[in-house]
């Protein structure tokens, strides 16, 4: 099962040193032990919120898998670390997750309709989403169909002070780096 995991720099989580590839442990109880990861990339921000002090990866969760129902966090006995994500990739995967699961409960890191970036990012969803931020911030947009609530367009931008200006409101209709859903 493809999932996402955050680590301290150097593939360390709660004192355990992971390695690229397959990692194994004996038990998986979501509230007590096992290797933790999440189906929704944005859930990683609940546990590792400082994107400058953490690393985010695509992983494959296997073996014995346990869920606690709190968010999309799971625990597993086999965790294959596949690929490190850049900030850009992390939010692109997050938007793809929302598009693939438009009717799931929203992640607490997603704002409805309008957002001001904090902690280096803004993720906003709605029929006319808008966001702004400071230089270096990532702005992620999920535009919904106003009737069905399904996501019809996602877009991603980074405030660079040139094409994307600080403190100017932008919407999902950005021309730069836009990704249209098929």
Itemize the secondary structure elements and their pairings.
Elements: E1 2-8, E2 12-13, E3 16-17, E4 21-24, E5 35-38, H1 44-47, E6 54-67, E7 73-85, H2 87-100, E8 111-116, E9 121-132, E10 138-144, E11 151-158, E12 170-171, E13 178-180
Parallel strand pairs: 8-9, 9-10
Antiparallel strand pairs: 1-6, 2-3, 4-7, 5-7, 6-7, 9-12, 10-11, 11-13
Quick recap:
This protein is mainly beta.
Description:
- With 182 residues, the protein is mainly beta.
- The chain is 10% helix and 46% strand.
- It contains 2 helices and 13 strands; from the N terminus they run βββββαββαββββββ.
- Strands 8, 9, 10, 11, 12 and 13 form a 6-stranded mixed beta sheet that branches. Strands 1, 4, 5, 6 and 7 form a 5-stranded antiparallel beta sheet that branches.
- A hairpin with a 6-residue loop joins β10 and β11.
- The longest helix is centred in the middle third of the chain and has 14 residues.
- The chain is globular and about 50 Å long.
Largest beta-sheet characterization: 6 strands, mixed
Q: Could you give the distance between the termini? A: 24 Å
Count of helical stretches: 2
Percentage of helical residues?
A: under 10%
Q: Radius of gyration over alpha carbons?
A: 17 Å
* Total beta strand runs: 13
Chain-averaged pLDDT: 92
Approximately how much beta-strand content do the residues carry?
A: over 45%
Overall body shape: globular
State the order of secondary-structure elements, H for helix, E for strand.
EEEEEHEEHEEEEEE
Q: What class, by secondary structure content?
A: mainly beta
Unreliable stretches: 176-182
């Amino acid at each position: 099962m493809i999932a996402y995991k955050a680590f301290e720099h150097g593939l360390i989580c709660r004192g355990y040193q992971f390695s690229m590839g397959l990692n194994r442990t004996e038990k998986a109880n979501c509230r007590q032990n096992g290797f933790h990861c999440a189906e929704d990339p944005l859930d990683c921000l609940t546990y590792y919120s400082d994107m400058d002090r953490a690393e985010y990866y695509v992983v494959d969760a296997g073996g014995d898998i346990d869920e606690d129902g709190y968010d999309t966090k799971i625990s597993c006995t086999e965790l294959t670390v596949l690929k490190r994500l850049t900030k850009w990739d992390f939010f692109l995967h997050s938007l793809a997750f929302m598009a693939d699961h438009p009717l799931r409960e929203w992640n607490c890191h997603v704002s409805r309709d309008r957002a001001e970036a904090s902690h280096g990012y803004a993720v906003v969803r709605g029929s006319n989403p808008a966001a702004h931020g400071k230089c270096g911030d990532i702005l992620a947009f999920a535009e919904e169909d106003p009737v069905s609530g399904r996501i019809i367009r996602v877009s991603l931008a980074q405030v660079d002070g040139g094409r994307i200006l600080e403190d100017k409101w932008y919407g999902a209709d950005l021309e730069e780096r836009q990704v249209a859903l098929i």
